[in-house]
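S1.2 Input.
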Amino acid sequence: MTGGAKRFGLIVVGDEILSGKREDAHFAAVRRLLGARGLRLAWVEYPPDERALIADRMTRSFAGMDVVFCCGGIGATPDDHTRQAAGLALDHPLELHPEAREWIAAHAAAQGLLLTPQRLRLGAFPRGARGHEIELGVKGDAEHVPEAFARLREGVARLGGRIA
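S1.3 Output.
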């Protein structure tokens, strides 16, 4: 990082992206949101659904000063490792977060769905994760990137900085 300017990175996890089964919408959404504010994406990485590899990417990100968005791999299927990798990288075990449980229960009820253990696994995050991170993690798709950016802006402002 030079001159105190914030650098922004993006990690998009998933074998589906790499194989072409799914098209990545996150890159374009993050690039567009940053660009609208006169900011730019400095780097992007596309790791496969491999927990150790994702954890390595996150460990490097946590050790740096870049603002990093991480998308994908947060479902409750066996190939989704992002939350577990974050726990490994932070050395924090996963636990069902109370706010996530409430959001998942409300969403399931509104949709007429059963509140199953598999659905609740979506609310397991590294110990110490904060509420807005949980909400974004549970919702977790490209249409929620503007909301994620708003939360990031709020957090940076609380620290005395500013993102346009």
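S1.4 Remarks. Confidence is low (pLDDT under 50) at residues 132-142, 155-164.
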